[in-house]
Amino acid sequence: MGLAGADSAQAVDEYRSSATDGLPHCAPPMPAYIDAVEQRLLDDPLLLGDIAEAVGGPFHVLFPERVAVNVGAFQSAFTEGGVDGLVYFGKKANKAACVVRACAESGAGVDVASTGELVAALAQGVRGEDLMVTGPAKSDDLLWLAARHGALIAIDAVDELDRLAALGPPARIVLRVLPEGSTSRFGLDRRELEQAIRAVTSSGPISLSGFSFHLSGYDATARAEQATALVDHCLRARSEGHPADIISIGGGFGVDYLDADSWSRFRETLSDNWFHGGAPAEDYYPYHFPSPGADMLSAVLAHNGLAKRLRDNDIRLAVEPGRALLDRAGSSVFRVQGVKTRTAQGHPYDILTVDGTSLSLSEQWFASEYLPDPVLWPQRPGATTPTCVGATTCLESDLLSRRRIPLPRRAHVGDLLIYPNTAGYQMDSNESPFHELPLPPKVVLRERADRLRWTLDTTSR
């Protein structure tokens, strides 16, 4: 039941004067790690407001210099492990042109799965030979274009290999192996793998460059052991005259959003009482990841001497991280359009309506919740206020945050909410112009000695 009238206003004021994070209807704080450039943006008294006024609606901010830092970390992990490594950015994780440009300038390739993604990567300076083409049942147009540009093509099925051969141009391929015991619809099982290897002749136009696999989850040991099995595939293929000098282990490199204490407190004390309309399913992303990104790659290389085995056999290891190359490389910004108060367990909390939708926080559309706390801007003094965040649509379930977040003060119309670290999948994998609302544009922020500079990403012009 909502609060109304003078008595309700007094109750709200009394509550806010004595609010603590321990109230049973309020979730504990979950502040995200913030990149230095983003902190500089938050500390600027004017810039965020100026961008919001110029854009006139929700928007995403991207920090391409951070992408370059993340690419460099993966490259360093390969160097420290003594392994010849290839880093491909999983483009499906973010559509922004500035991200691909940063990868091209940092010596990383790009993993694409459509003609649109392939063309977009070429347009940002990625050379054809630095493309990995993945995905199931690729169209003839994609196969032909990939072959013409010398991209490495991951073959997912025998009939796909047949179609590629029928197209005619020379092509480099890896065969995607279905791991033993997996029920995935992707990849070649043992019988299909044998059939595909026999179909590729060592003197033909198709070159068998190696093998690949993808695993769900974030287990470094499982990836290392599967990579070890693929070394044997490479050696066998070499004995039959194929180059077979590449193994791709895909993505799934975790990202560390939160400190260990915040994550364990959330998991150990999780309560339905923290959520407006009930808690989502408990299948949360592991928002605290002790060995994320490049550290996880180092763990893969170290397991059971994998790095040495790769070196001894002159095999290059390819990785296709998406989220991990976007760690702390962007945020999503929404303007508060309305504020109302409700009660839970006899305590008041606020529900905000912002000028965007939960389609711009994709985790919400997987029966889950994006957990890192949004930052309320501008920063002003006030009392902790449990707050949920709703979207500007007519759908009851369209909530950016069902969790009652302990905002440091009460939000007001015109304030901005900044959801941190959303560049990896959250920004646009599910965005839609529902209600004929415009898609949030992407703003590129670059750090200069005198000030931060911003421009629109080419995908938003």
Descriptive notes:
The protein is an alpha/beta fold. The protein has two domains: 11-63 and 328-456, Lyase, Ornithine Decarboxylase, Chain A, domain 1 (Beta Barrel); 65-255 and 292-326, TIM Barrel (Alpha-Beta Barrel). The chain has 13 helices and 17 strands. It has helices at 5-17, 36-43, 47-55, 64-81, 97-105, 115-123, 140-148, 158-167, 190-199, 220-239, 260-269, 293-302, 306-312; strands at residues 59-62, 85-90, 109-112, 131-133, 152-155, 171-176, 206-212, 246-248, 316-319, 330-344, 347-354, 375-377, 385-390, 399-407, 416-419, 442-447, 452-456. The strands form two sheets. Strands 1, 10, 11, 12, 13, 14, 15, 16 and 17 form a nine-stranded mixed beta sheet that branches. An eight-stranded parallel β-barrel has the order 2-3-4-5-6-7-8-9, surrounded by seven helices. A hairpin with an 8-residue loop joins strand 13 and strand 14. The two termini are 45 Å apart.
Instruction: Look at the structure and name the CATH superfamily of the largest domain.
Output: Alanine racemase
Tell me the number of strands: 17
Number of domains: 2
Proportion of helical residues: 25-40%
Under the CATH scheme, the architecture of the largest domain is Alpha-Beta Barrel
Largest sheet: 9 strands, mixed
Tell me, briefly, the overall form. elongated
Rg, nearest Å: 24 Å
Mean pLDDT: 93
Q: What percentage of amino acids are in beta strands?
A: 15-25%
Q: Figure out the total of helices.
A: 13
- Structural class designation: alpha/beta
CATH topology of the largest domain: TIM Barrel
Protein name: Diaminopimelate decarboxylase
Pfam family, one: Orn_Arg_deC_N
Domain Orn/DAP/Arg decarboxylase 2 N-terminal: 74-269
Cofactor: pyridoxal 5'-phosphate
